[in-house]
Amino acid sequence: FNPRTGGADFVEIYNNSNHEIDLKELQLANANVVGAPANIKNVSTARLMIKPGSYWVITTNQANVKLNYQAKFPNQFVQISSLPAFNNDKGSVILLSNNQILDRLDYNAKIHHPLIQDEDGISLERVSFSVASNEPGNFKSAAATAGFATPTYKNSQELSGDENYARLLSKTFSPDGDNFEDLMILEYQVAENASLATVNIYSDKGRLIKQLLKNQTIGTNGILTWDGLTDNGQKAAIGIYVVMFDVFDLKGNVKRIKNTCVLAGKLN
Fold first, then answer.
1. Same fold, 10-146 and 165-263
2. Could you read off the pLDDT tens digit of each residue along the chain, which spans 268 residues?
3. Structure pTM?
């Protein structure tokens, strides 16, 4: 609801049913001064069936959205001539079918993560589809590690599980360009959404080699990679490295997960 300068608003619709839904039967609206649906816009002028579990983006400029964010499924866009106005400070997004309200989000800028200083271009994402949209805490700022929006695919702040972990897919990598284990790959999951993380890579002597993240908002799960370059852009030496994954949430909980990896290479 607050795009970057020159950006375009978009609304994402998720099919939470076990059957296909025709977007032609849906409308988007905002709310008038008494809270009733207003400025109603049809989502699609033609029959368009969307599969269960799929995410579709409604916007006036799909090229702009794709330019600013990664769209995993670029064909799951619907471009319409105009959207209802969604103000930057607060407003309502209402989804209807045949003038009957299916879902409604009453938003304001305070929903965003309290440590975010510039909210431009950061989407609000739904955490759970099993509780009401307006349930407190059910919308959070999209994670920085996900590019601040995830149009057409799973929301970065959706709940993933109760376990916290950060683990390497392989203990060894060799960034030599042979397309085999060229990257160190760290997959993670955190139980609390809206968490922040700092991820540093140290030599076996304790010297900071590379900072992957510094107090950035992260999704509830994801992947981080290291290409073997230092913060100065130099190739790191062959050897053992320590990967420190520090994550903290707004409740004050802090967790540190340590991994070690080997940067391998050919010896002359």
1. yes
2. 688 889 999 999 999 999 999 999 999 999 999 999 999 999 999 999 999 999 999 999 999 999 999 999 999 999 999 999 999 889 999 999 998 999 999 999 999 999 898 999 999 999 999 999 999 999 999 999 999 999 999 999 998 878 899 999 999 999 999 999 999 999 999 988 889 999 999 999 999 999 999 999 999 999 999 999 999 999 999 999 999 999 998 888 899 999 999 999 876 5
3. 0.86
Q: What are phi and psi of 25, to 5 degrees?
A: -85, 0
Q: Which two tokens stand for residue 119?
A: 């909210």
Q: Which CATH architecture has domain 10-146?
A: Sandwich (2.60)
| Contact present, 238 and 263 (Cβ < 8 Å) | yes
Could you state, in order of their start, the residue ranges of all structural domains in the chain? 10-146, 165-263
Q: Round to whole Å and give the CA distance between 89 and 109.
A: 5
CATH of domain 165-263: 2.60.40.3880
C-alpha 224/C-alpha 207 separation (Å) is 20
3-state SS assignment for residue 63: helix
10 Å Cβ neighbour count for 252? 6
**Residues 94 and 116 sit within 8 Å (Cβ to Cβ):** no
Determine which helix (DSSP H) or strand (DSSP E) holds 62, and give its type and residue range. helix 62-68
CA distance 218 to 215: 9
DSSP state of 148: T
